[in-house]
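Backbone geometry:
***
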Amino acid sequence: MSALITATAGPASEHSLRGRFPRINQNVSHGRVRELERLRARARSFARQHARPRALEIDRRAGEDPRFFDWELVRAGAEEGLLRFLIPKPAGGVGGLATEAAIVMEELCAACPGIALIFGAHALGISPLLLGGPSQWDGVLAELVASEASERPTLMACAITEPEAGTDVEDPDLLARGRITTHARPVPGGYRLTGAKRFISNGSVARWITILMPTDPRRPAETWTCFLLDARSEGFSIAKVEHKMGQRACPAAELSLQDVFVPAERVVGRPGDGAAATMIVLACSRPPVAAIATGIANGAYERVRDWIASERTADATVAVLHRSTSDRAVTRSLARPASSAWCSSATWRSRASTSVVGATFAFS
């Protein structure tokens, strides 16, 4: 049995994983911590070398043209392993779950939440496949890993929201009463998908999309099903890319499906399991979403700290602002460990529950 890190294992600095995530002291092996530290270091390196220096320019260009997308940035992230951290090890990935996602998102969001969303939306698109079991890992997930060295690495997206249904497609009780307009019609050999999905992050740049819709519009909750959609399929198109107010680096698109054929082997899990899959995936995404907020706050704190250290002026107004900002920065610095600790605790709990619930969903 591997040795566990304890409170006596030495001092934990603010920048070490044990310092940022105190609950790791209780239940994680040294080897596991080293793996997470390496992932965090890669995410931080990418954030500082690539994301932060280019964030404002990318935001400006995407604001002028919402179809602009920086593939060079994605390639740099792929080199750091940021497209594979959620992919299982047998398929060539890191084999992470909520903990890895939270670490990556916190580090990237400190630099730019829009850039972070590219990688977060990609991970969200992968997530339903993890519930489908190993039989659905070999093809697409292996392709994702193999494409990392290409000019345009393969990206994924997850399509749930519809023009007339948002939050109400995320809960079975609400889904039964939601205004669902999509339909996956059973046909010999598979399904014909028709309808629209809206506000889909990575929707206009993803090669594969996990998309959810009912096979019987009269019983959406009971027949909500997840499909793996090839964006090159006949009848699929991008109806619109939204002009966003923020996080412009990651496009949000409206997807149009006109009688798109999806073969039966690209049903993720089993027909009708989509509602359970949606709840599991979204529940496990909550800690990483919390880490997004922590990362944004960390980035704001670091920028203010650097400004305080660099500004030197005798102007009285600025001097007062210095003192006020310094007080706020101290308050923020005290809150950071608590925020990271909460995310850490939540990710460890969700990791355990995911393995149990996911196994039940995929193999029962």
Summary: Confidence is low (pLDDT under 50) at residues 1-12, 20-26, 350-364.
